[in-house]
Amino acid sequence: MPKRLRLTRRFPIAMTEDGYRRLKRFSREAGLDEGEALSFLFEHFESVTDQDNLSHRLRIFNSELEARKR
């Protein structure tokens, strides 16, 4: 029997406009709502990310973060 998807956690998050638009586009293309799309991405994080690319992009994001907050 397939495991039932239960959305049991709700938490406030802050997202950039670019990030939110990308989430909306991904969820629409996948036929999911935003919460289901985030659950999918985090449940399958290792298989949907490239570790080397992730590390590189994270360094760039962190280096630009303070400037983006202003």
TrEMBL record:
<protein>
    <submittedName>
        <fullName>Uncharacterized protein</fullName>
    </submittedName>
</protein>
